[in-house]
Amino acid sequence: MAKVFVTAEVEDSTKWEEGFRTHVDLFRSYSINKPIHFSTHEDNTVGICFEPDDLDTYMAGMDLPSTAEAMAFDGVKRETVKIFVLDKELQL
Description:
The structure is a single chain. 35% of the residues lie in helices and 22% in strands. By secondary structure, it is of the alpha+beta class. It has a single domain (4-85), classed as Alpha-Beta Plaits (2-Layer Sandwich), CATH 3.30.70.100. α1 (13-20) packs across α4. The longest helix is centred in the last third of the chain and has 10 residues, at 65-74. The radius of gyration is 13 Å and the shape is globular. 14% of the residues are buried.
């Protein structure tokens, strides 16, 4: 199962979180059916961990106009979005 970590700068982290929590149906369309873990910081940066069932579906979803609209609504500075597919693991 893939894990994806996304970072971004947002205009206002409180406003971003309020909007982010409204996008459940959009996230499900990306094949995400597990809890989404995220963090906001005082400097208006966010980090989000997704576990999509299908990585290709998730990545295609990130390029959809509906995703751009949701990000704009939430105040995401789109040019700052970084997507990391977690493909390495350190066993302890």
